[in-house]
Amino acid sequence: MRLSSNPLSRYTVRMGRYIHLHTHSHYSFLEALPKVPELVKEAKAQGMDALGLTDAGNMHGAVEFYQKAEKAGIKPIFGVDAYIASRDRTDMNDTKRSRLVLLAQNNAGYQNLMKLVTRSFLEGFSEKPRMDKEILREHKDGLIAIIPSFAGDVAQALKAGDPNGAAASLAEYVSIFGKENVYLEISHHPKVEGHLERMKAIETLSKNAGVPLVAQHDVYYLKPDDREATEVMRRIGHGNRGDANQEENFSFVTEKDMREWFKHVPEAVDASGEIADRCTVSMTLGSWNFPEVILPEGVSHADELRKKTYDGLSMRGMEKTEEVVTRMEYELDVIISKGFAPYFLAVSDLLEFAKSAGIMSTTRGSAAGSLVSYLCGITNVDPLFYKLPFERFLNPERPKAPDIDMDFADNRRDEMIAYARRKYGEDKVAQIGTFGTLMARAAVRDVSRALGHAYRTGDRIAKLIPMGSQGFPMTIKHALELEPELKQLYDEDDDVKEIIDLAQRIEGCVRHTGVHAAGVVIAPTPLWEWTQCSSIRRTRRSASRSLICTRLRMPDSLNSTSSASRTSPFSLTRWSV
User: Fold this and answer.
1) Domain that holds residue 527
2) Integer Cα distance of 136 and 100 in angstroms
3) Among 257, 262, 473, 544, which residue has the fewest nearby CB atoms (within 10 Å)?
4) In a domain, 295, yes or no
């Protein structure tokens, strides 16, 4: 993903409207129910022309959100519901934290959001990824700050009976972002004890400080009847603690509701639309960006690849015949014209290091049909001798990127990653993060446990759900169609029906993150310019270490390699550069 250099507004807007800016998707990890397409669909159904996505502490859904919103004709507003450390993000003993909603006004703001989220994971992670005032000051440009009505510094101070502290917290945020970029959020939750009084206090503070109000409704599910499923999902994540405000409504409310609730301050409702108008970020998706291969001054990537290819003739013991030269030049023309020369040089360099270090390595796939790959030491099969076609690998008529599958000995994978970081830069190389979701069987077992049933209840139901096939995971709906005994239990047992109904509501939601077994990404510039990153501690052969992982959910339409999730059967590590 790359930000567009021309982020002009492409959306028709109407004045005096309400826009949801404080919205959570399932990327808030067992805190919120809606998937990104569902949020976009609901906004469209309600006639909204813009929508904000502010997941808890992360921007995992950004690219998916951009694509879905653009397709629906809705302006995507990128943000994060950030965790703010009370003192210092690096102080792991500082357990007190608050929240702050940050929205990107423009491309510079979006990049600053990625920097802030990355630093919150790498430098401030303690239960949650935390920012602090120091890095907010460093990366404030292009951002709008909304101080939340529940967990913001101001609301927390007011709840503690400290109006002076609330005013001081507001003044600090104004000093960081500027008065024109700070808003005080007010919301409508009459069932929460003391909430109405705090909202009145926030309104008074707004008048005294000259900081505008914005009316919002913190969204964690779409419809009021989704509340139970959301609460069950939170119990799965946090045990039986649940949510103290579970009786309140945190659904995707309508503009009519907001107008009714805040008719005494209509300008606070209108402010949401005004903020939406100020936020415009444009992305360029689908372009290919390769590692920056440093060459001597005056030497282009095309020149270096051509030289490396011709030098490979002697290395492979091949004669420079007309047939060989014709094939070489044909392939080079295709590779260079498509801009793929840096990719071949980077792959060749990685494999050269592996061979020089005695690391078992090989390549697989259609790259075996490339004579250039063979002469550059990437593959070990002579495509001319075996009559392998180049077009299966790269077709001049089709805009397909090269896909060279590299395998390295698993027990020396760390050496390869360390070399890549030395070669291309610590801030440009990362392992690829993954997302684990609640699949059919797991959803049933988790829901059953969250509802307080005995283990055998959930286990009995889960065992009746058939296993899915590769690439086609089993769903609860399909299982009910396939398995008569499961359908009979569902129809006759009220407990089973409740478990299955709730499990279907949370099925497919993101549950946790992980690290891809073999995927590594190398960027031409620091990774935070492309995606947020995070650090994961894991134990490997009794050594605890921190791994830098990309954290961006790419839609299936952007996945360049459909088989990227497969690992090699030879205890080797698969790399995609």
Assistant:
1) 301-434+512-575
2) 11
3) 544
4) no
On whether the CB atoms of residues 400 and 406 are closer than 8 A, the answer is: no
**What gap in Å lies between CA 57 and CA 35, rounded to an integer?**
17
3-state SS, one letter per residue, for 234-299: HHHHHHHHCCCCCCCCCCCCCHHHHHHHCCCCHHHHHHHHHHHHHCCCCEECCCCCCCCCCCCCCC
DSSP class of residue 193 equals T
242 and 279 housed in the same domain: yes
| Percent share of the chain, pLDDT over 70 | 89
- The pair of three-digit structure tokens given for residue 528, joined into one six-digit string: 């935070």
- Burial (Cβ within 10 Å: 0-12, 13-18, ≥19) of residue 393: buried
In this prediction, residue 219 has a pLDDT band, given cuts at 50, 70 and 90, of: very high
* pLDDT tens for each residue of 71-100: 999 999 999 999 999 999 999 888 899 999
Residue 165: is it exposed, middle or buried by C-beta count within 10 angstroms (0-12/13-18/19+)?
middle
pTM of the model: 0.89
Over residues 312-330, the pLDDT tens digits come to 999 999 999 999 999 999 9
Q: Residues 272, 21: contact at Cβ < 8 Å?
A: yes
Structure tokens at 152: 């913001």
CB atoms within 10 A of CB 507: 20
Report the DSSP beta bridge partners of residue 283. 3
CA count, 13 A, side-chain hemisphere, 525: 8
Residue 154 lies in a domain: yes
The number of domains in the chain is: 3
Residue 468 DSSP one-character state: P
